[in-house]
Amino acid sequence: MDNLPKISLTRLFEDMDDPRVVGRCSYPLVEVVLIDICAVLCGAETWTEVEEFGESKREWLGRLLKLDQGIPSHDTFRRVFSLLPAEGFETRFREWVEATFRIEQGQVIAIDGKTVRRAGLRALPLVSAWAHHSGLVLGQRKVDEKRNEITAIPQLLDDL
C-alpha cells in the first residue's frame, strides 16, 4: 500500500466554504472536520464520542492541527455538521478515499440492502456497495420509502 498516492485531508477541506457566521466561530472549520473524520474512522458514532475522541487524542491531533482553541464540544460538532452542505463534504471525502484506497480490477463488489434502526428514530433503508477484499464500503444510497432496493441500485452503481 506504500505505493498508493496520498492526498491530504487538510488540503481538501481547508478551502471549503464555511457556512457559519463570520466572527462568531472559535474553531477553524478544517479542524472541526478533520477531528470528526478521524473520530468516525476510529468508531465514534455520536457527537459526544467525537468530542471524547478529540480529548483523548489531543496530543496526537496537536501534531497535525494548531488546536489554538482546544477541542470543540459535542454541540459544536453537531452545529457545524448540521450547517455543512452534505454534497460538498461528500465530494471532498470521496476524493480522499479514491486517492488513498484502490479497488483491484476483478474484485467482487457486493451490493446489499439493510435497514438501519435506532431507538427513537425512524428506520433508514440503505443499499450499500462493499469491496470485500479491501474491506471498504464504496458507497451507500438511501432507498425511497415507497420503493424497494432494486430502484436504488442503479443510482449507487452510477455513483461508483
Polypeptide structure, described:
- With 160 residues, this protein is of the alpha+beta class.
- It has 2 domains: 9-100, no CATH class; 109-159, no CATH class.
- The chain is built from 7 helices and 3 strands.
- It has helices spanning 9-14, 29-41, 47-56, 58-64, 74-83, 86-100, 149-159, and strands at residues 109-116, 124-131, 136-142.
What's the SSE pattern?
HHHHHHEEEH
Question: Based on CA inertia axes, which overall geometry fits?
Answer: globular
Strand content bin: 5-15%
Q: How many helix segments?
A: 7
Can you tag this structure with a few keywords?
single chain, 160 residues, alpha+beta, 3-stranded antiparallel sheet
Secondary structure elements and pairings:
Blueprint: H1 9-14, H2 29-41, H3 47-56, H4 58-64, H5 74-83, H6 86-100, E1 109-116, E2 124-131, E3 136-142, H7 149-159
Antiparallel strand pairs: 1-2, 2-3
Helix pairs in contact: 2-3, 2-5, 3-5
Short description:
The protein is α+β, with helices and mostly antiparallel strands.
